[in-house]
Amino acid sequence: MIKKFVSTTLGITGLAVLIGASGIMCAMNTAQAQYVGPNQTQTYTTVSQILKNPVDDQYFNLKGKITDKQGHERYTFTDSTGSIRAEIDDDRFMGVEVTPNSVVEVWGKVDTSRTKPVKIDVKRLTVIQ
Q: What is the pTM of this model?
C-alpha cells in the first residue's frame, strides 16, 4: 500500500525530500532544547564572599556604594562587609549622577588574575537611593 502511494503520489524523489525534511524538523526541535534544572553556579551577594573565595567569571549581585574613583573606569565598591576594586564602563552610569552617598545595585562577573588583586567587572548599575 505504501509502495503504491509512494510511486503514484510522491515518487522516489518526493519520498527522499519528505524523509530529509522530517529529519531536519527533528534536528531543529532538539536544537532549541535547554537545561532548566538546578545548577552548580553561585551568585555572590556580598564583597566578603568574593574576597574569601574568588572564582573567575562568577556572577555577583551586590548592593552598596561607589566610594572612590581610582582612575578611568576604575572605582572602589563598598558594602557592609568590605571593599573591592570595580571596573565600571562609563556608559553603565547611563548619564545618572552617582555620589559616594548613593546606594547602588551592581551586577556582573568577578575578575581574578595571578598578578593583580581580585576585582569586579560591572555589567549593569542601578541607583537605588
A: 0.69
* The three cell numbers locating residue 89: 564602563
Cα(55)–Cα(3) distance, integer angstroms:
62
Residues β-bridged to residue 67: none
Residue of 32, 37, 62, 30 whose CA lies nearest to 49: 62
- The CATH number of 47-127 is which of 2.40.340.10, 3.90.226.10, 1.10.287.3510, 2.40.50.200? 2.40.50.200
Distance CA 127, CA 129 (A): 6
Q: What are the tens digits of pLDDT across the range 2-55?
A: 555 555 555 666 666 666 666 666 655 555 666 666 666 679 999 999 999 999
pLDDT tens digits, residue range 58-86?
999 999 999 999 999 999 999 999 999 99
